[in-house]
Amino acid sequence: LLGAAAGSCTMSMAEDAEWLRWVTKQFGNIAGDDKEIDMEEFKTALQVKESFFAERFFTLFDTDGSGTISLEELLKALSLLVHGNEMDKLRFLFQVYDVDGKMTKRLICNFLTKALICKAACGSIDPDELRVVLGWCLRESAIALPEERLADLTLALFEAADKDRSGSITFEELKEELEGFPEVMENLTISAASWLKPPLPPARSCRPRHLTWDYWHNHRGKLACLGGYTGLNLLLFALGALWHASLGGWVAVARGCGQCLNFNCALLAVLMLRRCLTWLRATPIAKVLPLDQHVVFHQLVGYVVLVLAAIHTGAHVANFSRMARQDGCHGLAEYLLRARPGVGGLGGTASQTGLALQALLATMLAFSSPCVRRSGHFEVFYWTHLSYIFIWTLLILHGPHFWKWFVVPGCLFVMEKVLGLAWQRAGGLRIVEVNLLPSKVTHLVIERPQFFRYKPGDYIYLNIPAIASYEWHPFTISSAPEQQETFWLHIRSLGQWTNKLYEYFQQPELPNLELKPLSRSLRKKRCQHWAQVGEDWAQVLCYIDGPYGTPTRQIFTSEHAVLIGAGIGITPFASILQSIMYRQRKQSCPSCRYSWSPTPRLLWPFQVDFIWINRDQKHFEWFISLLTKLEMEQAEQEPEGRFLEMHMYMTSALSKNDMKAIGLQMALDLLATKEQRDSITGLRTRTQPGRPDWNKVFGKVAEEKRGKVHVFFCGSPALAKVVRVHCERFGFRFFKENF
């Protein structure tokens, strides 16, 4: 019901009647037979987390004090909030904050009749009222702060707004203070009714994104590869079909598909040569081929193989059926199930190996679907995928020419597997330290092998026999390569294996268990502890395979890099930021005190914008110490040497255009300016409420004109699509981490 107001702010007067009819209908659905809305029904309609603001709104709308809201009262309130001017909406905000209700009932009727101008001064907001409202604002935004910080916020806002030092805030004083926050006043002029419900999503363009010039321009490399891949398959099909056209139509189709299968089955192996692909990232080929999309292409080729195999098998079955009818002595089953010389394959077993291949391919595809891999049954995906050994063996027996296509990628594949086994045979690595972080994140500190070399943002495959003997899972390395003795992994508990890992180190019988808080600055905030495993548990061994490269390797060739991490997606960027910090750290001569940077300034990006988006406050604790060090080192640099700008977003916090958060966000801004420290994270960077406005974020990046912009993203697929679309609009190159 109340959401109608959000969409009505752009209505013309001619649409008002239709809108009022819609509101009346919705009111009838909620109110029922009594034609009145009580407090509980109002709370349900408002959908707020806490009841405080629902009660304040209800009090303001209930002008006759009857304890219920009639349709007439609701329409008057919504009409004023939608069509009222800036002053009307500001007065409504003032009434919400005037908790004690002095003059409220008399002022409400005047407010709804727009006669509040001369009587607004009768009401006032004292410090206790402001503290109560800010406390509820914190709860509504899911922000946990100790009482002393709430007192600091109250004092900061009250001292700024109480211009005459009278001990209370009048309407005029609140108005004057709000004028110092242009973005708040701008949101007030848009629609105060949108406070009641988030605005409607923007209308989508009727033109598909894949048909826009921006899409084709930004994906020209991938589209060129797809075009070349399609053209090569068509060429191979045509050559195979024409070569065997004299044997009949069905045979021509089967042989054409067979020729394509030779190529595609070999290509499947090429696309999973991780070590070769990592090496290719450091060559000019990386600028031409979309190496970052190798997993997507692997999946695409897998589907193509299944379709081609089905057509290939169907064409042969149709041909055998024709031959069986002509022969009259042998049935179709005999052609399919018995080896016949001259049919093809080793010893005439083409039919039998073909059927076996079709069954293996269908099984592999069925258990490779996301619903299987992400539903806690990874081992099913893993073991069925190992059937590629049998598939390649059967292909060599089935097709006389497949070995020619497979010999080079097959040898490379075997070499990569041998190297992986060599790493495993070299012995397990000790897990030196384990920290259990908020939101079920396991931080592993693993001893670093002597010849283990990796780049910032690389990932490894991890196996811990104590969790599962045969399962290997990919995780991004979250520490810098410059850290010599150990490397870090931050693992979010999202599946069966990762949950087992967290629970394994959470066992109550852990010896020498020592609880440590995150940092001294957060010790007073909450009783959140880490479990640090004692020395006796340092005997837990793990095995690694890697490292393997990722798109983030290109960050050091960027002129302006934008790093966007959502939740635990910060892990590759944590490694990158630490590496930059090590490279920028100056060294000094003990004799002459001359200082220099070990890495020339031009070897890292000219500008880095780091954006971290988290759902709630506790997620920032994962890497808060690292970000604090980065800020401190940036502060010590000369202005021209500062390259990093950090942007923090907390999506559960109400945005500045929500009336329930206007006072809180003003107080947080004032206190952050006063203390040079954010109250939510303790960083100098102010944590922004809500989600990023990507048009504004990327618009600001484009205006800076620091060079070619590369955007690196790691997070949820849904958010990746949103960021990708905006990158296409601004002409930025987009890179997405797969792990």
Automatic annotation (TrEMBL):
It comes from the Eukaryota. One of its GO terms (biological process) is defense response. PROSITE patterns: EF_HAND_1, EF_HAND_2, FAD_FR. It is found in: Membrane. GO terms for molecular function: calcium ion binding; superoxide-generating NAD(P)H oxidase activity. Residues 424-554 form the FAD-binding FR-type domain. Keywords: Calcium, FAD, Flavoprotein, Membrane, Metal-binding, NADP, Oxidoreductase, Transmembrane, Transmembrane helix. GO terms for cellular component: NADPH oxidase complex. The chain crosses the membrane at residues 223-243, 294-315, 380-397. Gene3D superfamilies: EF-hand, Nucleotide-binding domain of ferredoxin-NADP reductase (FNR) module, Translation factors. Residues 49-84, 149-184 form the EF-hand domain. It is a multi-pass membrane protein. This is NADPH oxidase 5. It comes from Athene cunicularia (Burrowing owl).
